[in-house]
Amino acid sequence: MSLPEHIITPDWPAPGNVRALQTTRNGGASAAPYSSLNLGSHVGDVPLAVARNRQLLAPLLPNEPVWLNQVHGTVAVDTGTPQCTPQADACIATHAGAVCVVMTADCLPVLLCDDEGSVVGAVHAGWRGLCDGVIEQAVRAMNSPPGNLMAWLGPAIGPQAFEVGDEVRAAFVARQSQAAAAFVPGVAGKWYADIYELARLRLNALGINRIYGGGLCTYSDHSRFFSYRRDGATGRMGSFIWLAEA
Asked: Which CATH architecture has domain 7-156+207-243?
């Protein structure tokens, strides 16, 4: 199936049965400031518009995704364990047709799969979750040797726009000294953080060295991406991954 032009297909050498897609802000039914393909039901948008946007994606997916209640934590859930809107920031799937999804609007979405096409995962990596180990928890839940895994980094706030305080840098450096290189000094007490590099460092530390994507800045590309830091009231994009039927 060919995808609409407003949908991004991850560029990575995933196995043929691994399917993934990344939405942008375009192609939906929501009005400003959520225009137009807002998938978040928690941001103040009209519920019917959100439902319509999710329906528009249905032909591209094998089943209804497992929508998470994301809380900037480190919990990873398995789509094979039935829950009603799990409170988690990562999910994995090991059976065909189960769709993992995370929603973002500046935070970093990370998609994961193994070489055999037997397990996939989606991770919502805001700075808190990333710092506290959400990627590590997702990889642990996948139960696959890290050397067999690859990752794709989706759209997130870029290093020229992601200004953080001393406490954020200190938290990352306390957990991984190499993280210091991912911060560039700004005004006194402020730093510009490279969330892509921070994620790569965590993935590398786990033994995952095949990392693709990164570099799509949500903050600077208003025409394609939602950005909470830029706009405040805004929508959410989705990063989806699943295993296709044999």
From this structure: 4-Layer Sandwich (3.60)
